[in-house]
Specification:
The chain is α+β, with helices and mostly antiparallel strands. It folds into two domains: about 250 residues, 2-Layer Sandwich (BirA Bifunctional Protein, domain 2); about 90 residues, Rossmann fold, CATH 3.40.50. The chain has 16 helices and 16 strands. An eight-stranded mixed beta sheet has the order 1-5-6-11-10-9-7-8, with helices on both faces. Strands 13-12-14-15-16 form a five-stranded mixed beta sheet, with helices on both faces. Strands 2-4-3 form a three-stranded antiparallel beta sheet. Strand 9 and strand 10 form a beta hairpin. The two termini are about 50 Å apart. The relative contact order is 0.12.
Length: about 425
């Protein structure tokens, strides 16, 4: 067990990490285009932050959190989602006193949820998330949806669809809760234990339940869209107008509620069709009252989260190949007692920004060349007796077999020329 990763976790090997770096760079570029700057929050927070922010009727808080008592007898939780921590940071650092909106993103942020591991869903996974605090217009919602859609499309993911909904606000949602409870009351015995337990406090959770029996019971449930207040209806219409103006295909899906209690007004999901059915690759929405719930000013906010593992899984499924960068530009080989000269050459090349390495295991010259081939280095640089005596180095293209012998001081420039 000591050399086995815990269930629901996965190593990213040196031979795989370039794939992560590739999509991370694309995500950073997408965020920067819209003015989002990076925030890095702790891996763990006080448990109360998630109970108050995410909601104690959610599956996350009730079943999925990694919570423990620290040595100070404080209840600590490994963060199960990114928004609550970002909101806490926004408040604690008084960022609301600066010019708004405040746009921030987090990347490769570890998220922990105790749930059954499955394809694209691990107990420790990593998210790319954007949070925009202080913007009340639906243009902010549309901006995030477009950013996610264009990012995923640019990575080559096909069959994307945007699903949007409005789940109202504290002004209009109570009326809908009443309508939904009236509808569910006669079907209560057919709902799962969780949905029955949440019936009084949060009947919306039944719409989000993934159990087939519950899905069948809510199929004909009333729609929140029918009872939106004027403000929520105008916001939702503005969002649709923005998406139409940009030609982004979307559909209104009144069954989307998302699994977190802090959402208000807009909720959205980006879904892609796979052989195993539809898969949500990005989800988010508006949380206009979360900051106030945590003790701050009443400020609107909107954001989304996107799992990195899920993005990579979809790219693999669609056969999208990420360019594999060469580990080295040049591998230095040497004969006999010329190790110091070889080491000096490696370090000189590195100072010039050239990826170089040498044998560190005492191999023979023949074995060094064999190893150089395995690394995939396009060039070798050899220092033998003749080269050492002349202060030169023999450069060789490992594919074309072209050779050049040049002074050591010209090695960097010649390597660049041979690499093109």
């Amino acid at each position: 067990m000591l050399i086995q990763a815990p269930r629901g976790t996965k190593d990213v090997l040196p031979t795989e990490s370039y794939r992560w770096q590739f999509i991370e760079q694309k995500m950073r570029e997408a965020a920067a285009l819209a003015g989002y700057r990076e925030v890095r929050t702790p891996v763990f927070e006080h448990t109360e932050l998630f109970a108050r922010g995410v909601g104690d009727t959610t599956d996350i808080v009730q079943k999925e959190m990694y919570t423990f008592q620290d040595k100070g007898n404080r209840s600590i939780t490994l963060k199960p989602e990114g928004t609550a921590g970002a909101a806490r940071c926004f408040l604690e650092s008084n960022l609301y006193a600066d010019a708004l909106p405040c746009k921030m993103y987090y990347l490769d942020a570890p998220i922990f949820r105790y749930e059954a591991p499955q394809s694209g869903r691990l107990r420790e996974h990593h998210q790319f998330g954007l949070e925009c605090f202080g913007a009340q217009g639906a243009t902010a919602d549309a901006e995030l949806i477009l950013l996610a859609y264009r990012l995923l499309s640019g990575l080559g993911i096909r069959n994307l669809s945007v699903n949007i909904n409005s789940i109202g606000c504290p002004n209009c949602r109570p009326k809908y809760h009443g309508m939904l409870k009236d509808y569910l009351a006669d079907r209560l015995d057919s709902l799962c234990e969780d949905c029955r337990g949440r019936f009084d406090r949060n009947p919306l959770r039944a719409l989000d339940c993934k159990k087939p029996g519950c899905q069948a019971q809510v199929k004909d449930a009333p729609s929140m869209l029918d009872v939106l207040c004027d403000d929520c209806r105008a916001h939702f219409e503005e969002l649709q107008a923005c998406l139409k103006a940009e030609g982004i295909p979307f559909q209104v899906n009144s069954r989307i509620v998302r699994g977190l209690d802090y959402y208000t007004k807009t909720v959205f999901e980006l879904i892609t069709a796979t052989e195993d059915g539809n898969l949500t690759v990005c989800g988010g929405g508006r949380y206009d009252h979360l900051v106030a719930q945590l003790g701050g000013p009443d400020l609107p906010a909107v954001g989304f989260g996107m799992g990195l593992e899920r993005v990579l899984m979809l790219m693999d499924a669609e056969g999208i190949r990420i360019p594999d960068p060469k580990q080295y530009d040049v591998f230095v080989t040497y004969m006999g007692d010329h190790l110091p000269q070889a080491f000096h050459l490696v370090e000189s090349l590195r100072k010039e920004g050239i990826r170089a390495d040498m044998d560190h295991c005492g191999r023979s010259l023949k074995a060094q060349f064999k190893y150089a081939n395995k690394t995939g280095a396009p060039l070798s640089a050899t220092i033998g007796d003749d080269e050492a005596a002349a202060g030169s180095v023999k450069l060789k293209n490992m594919e074309t077999r072209e050779e050049r012998t040049v002074p050591v001081g010209e090695a960097g420039a010649t390597v660049r020329e041979m690499l093109g």
